[in-house]
Amino acid sequence: MNVKKVIDIEEAAKENYTQSEPWPNNDMWHTCTYNILNKYVQKYLDELHLSSSQVILNAGCGKTTYKTPCTIIYMDIIEDYVNMFEKYLIASVEKIPMPDSSVDCIICVGSVINYADVQKAIAEFSRILKPGGTLILEFERSNSAEFLFTKKYAKTVFVQKYQYNNQIHYLWMYSEKFLIQLADYYSFICKRKYRFHILSSLLYRFGVSEKRSAKYSKFDDFLQPCSYFFAHNEIVIFEKNIL
Ligand SMILES: C[S@@+](CC[C@H](N)C(=O)[O-])C[C@H]1O[C@@H](n2cnc3c(N)ncnc32)[C@H](O)[C@@H]1O
């Protein structure tokens, strides 16, 4: 009988990130990803005009901070990434040690949910977020051009092995449709989407190196209309339904 090897993806992530920084140095693709995320999240936070009495959870924060008048709670599975912050939690997005309806905004970007059981994570986000609150979520998509002409393309869910940070990382890959439907089940209304690494993923698929193809992410704004079929990453802004 052919039994599939079961990998504990969260444990593998914990082991990898304990031995490394959240983002690798000298890696053009991930430097671009980090810059796109930072710029988009900071811009969106500015637009939200949150006040000093409000609370943000930065879930799977790594060492990333944002400018905001709010209180930020930094949460990660790696203690060394968060113990320098005033308010921090060492916990997984699958089980968040916070009360129901206790935060106004959740930021979960940098492929954090690709390392987790997405159903548990989205259920937890829905539980701790106040009605009308905002979830800024980013994930890596199975609809990526990286998988074009393979059986994996746009598949609901599968596990992909990556070489990242000079380590082997295992990521759950999700189709956009699956993720949005799951979020809808947990009372999240999709307000806005931004897909990125569009042309870069396509070039990478056809043999251009990661380093060279990453530079083409500069065309992402312009390529949004055809992004559904090719983009590797996506940021989705959700609002938790008031009802
Ligand atoms: C690529 S880093 C991104 C860090 C940060 N979100 C950012 O955008 O800069 C991925 C992060 O996810 C964290 N992580 C992985 N699995 C997690 C889980 N189940 N719960 C919380 N954090 C997790 C890792 O420790 C790491 O800090």
Descriptive account of the structure:
Helices cover 28% and strands 27% of the residues. It is an alpha/beta fold. The strands form two sheets. The protein has a seven-stranded mixed beta sheet, with helices on both faces. The protein has a two-stranded antiparallel sheet with strand order 6-7. It is globular and about 50 Å long. The site of S-adenosylmethionine has 23 residues, from helix 1.
Concise summary:
This protein has 243 residues and is α/β, with parallel strands linked by helices. 28% of the residues lie in helices and 27% in strands.
Topology summary:
Layout: H1 9-18, H2 28-48, E1 55-59, E2 71-76, H3 79-82, E3 88-90, E4 103-108, H4 118-128, E5 129-140, E6 157-164, E7 167-174, H5 176-185, E8 188-196, H6 199-205, H7 210-214, E9 233-240
Parallel strand pairs: 1-2, 1-4, 2-3, 4-5
Antiparallel strand pairs: 5-9, 6-7, 8-9
The structure holds S-adenosylmethionine.
